[in-house]
Write a structure and sequence with these properties.
The protein is α+β, with helices and mostly antiparallel strands. The protein contains twelve helices and 20 strands. Helix 1 runs antiparallel to helix 6 and helix 8 packs parallel to helix 9. The N terminus is likely disordered.
Amino acid sequence: MTRPPQSQIDGASLAIMQKRFEGVTRKMANTLLRTARSGVINPARDFSCVIVTADCELLGAADSYPIHVTGGADMMARAMKEMHPDLKPGDAFLHNSPYHGNSHAADHTILVPVFDDGGIHRFTVLAKAHQADCGNSLPTTYMGKARDVYEEGALIFPAVRIQSDFKDVQDIINMCMMRIRVPKQWRGDYLATVGAARIGEREIERMGAELGWSALVAHGRQWFDVSERQMIKVISSMAPGRARCTCTHDPVPGTPEGGVPANADVTVDVANGRIIVDLTDNIDCLPLGLNLSHACARTAAIVGVFNSLPQTVPPNAGSMRRIEVRLRENCVVGIPRHPVSTSVATTNLGDRVTNAVQRALAEIDPAAGMAEGGAAIPPAAGVISGRDPRNGHLFVNEVILAAGGGPGTPTQDGWLSLFCMGNAGMPFYDSVEIDEMLHPMLVETRKLDPDSEGAGMFRGAPGILTEYRPQGCAFELGFVSDGTVNPALGTRGGGEARPARQYLVADDGEVTPLATAEQIVVRADQLVVSYSNGGGGYGDPAPRQRAADVYRVALREDHSIDDAMTANLRNNERAFLA
């Protein structure tokens, strides 16, 4: 369908208006960060705020997790419209269904349609936040071994109306309060999320009154067109070609023996200005929580592309016209159907898809791509639960003390606090003091794990050693980790990272190894020891001369330290300085 001609907005005005929209999402985020109750939202910042058009096209998501919204916000908004053709001002919808565009059940999303003065639906704002508890059958939001959504246990809300005429639908609130283990905490987080969405609604209404609704709609269309042209330009600068890469998730009971491979077949079609990611050649869905939701499979591939571009392009509906992601139904990294469990969709296997895309693009073009990033959700980022002996209160919360190190890239070393590829370094690592204040725990160690990164011309970021224990009680710990069997791989001659390691150490010296996925009771006399996975290296490390030239460290051909030569280098420098 040909659109009627639109008056062109000049470049400066276009940029300023887009910054106005980004300011709206940042105001939403500030509201959510400052008013939420649970530690996983405040202070760890596991949330995202988004604006989509009335046509369900992603307009802006400043400072958001890519895996939350890049390829799923449009799907959630479309599900809302399809299920509720009678949208009206004052509505708000609770959405966490992974079968209708959401990431996974633990991410509760509030959608609010925004109307002009004439009652025409113009935009939709979304505020999404990971819950401390979502009503799963176990006190964790990561049910890696759940055989289906029924064993997973969470309440599923497929774009359910939770506010009408700006008032809560109390029946839905009551269901959540009865099912979720920490109902008052959830209620506080719900109010914070609704508040963030209503802030977004108010700010867009102000923009419409000031600038005119037709101007806002015209901006969106032109911004998409500009972003698409920018994407075409960047793709035209890349080397054409096709590559296939595989990154493999560690095995858990019920997976193939070596783990779950994520195969990505990537084509850079310079002539037509397109990048195609084919994920159809992967195994079928598994009776586990590792399966990706439709939104996460699509987004994980898109994130791998945007991460790998030689120049930055704004991720929105316009630039994404140039990315084609091919998926199939009943695929572990494709389109699951109810009741397949997708409990861990936002992190583990999704990161492996992103990594496979990045490494494939690196094979095609030495100025693009990345190595493999370190794996997510080690015990240092697990969900702890129990009863606090200091006040008798139940607690459930994900502590985000550490996770994976970033991958080496064609231009720089890995990002130290990446956490995981899909979260893009957006989580705030927990304050040790605040975690100890909120939970009966003592964090004994948090420090970098030396030499755990993959070597390279640009090396990966190292992993992190974290040690913590319960204080005055036992607590339950749940996690679904990765990288202990299949560490982060390098690319274009870069080295792989050191594998992750995790175990319990009792005060009497007894060591209990921890598997990839666990839901265990940690006794008061036990210490949780978690070595997270570093990132892989990019490029041959041989040209990197900083070891000898800057640090006066001599390396052998296998990159081990030559102690005698190192001593000579340093003695010669001391003699020269003397």
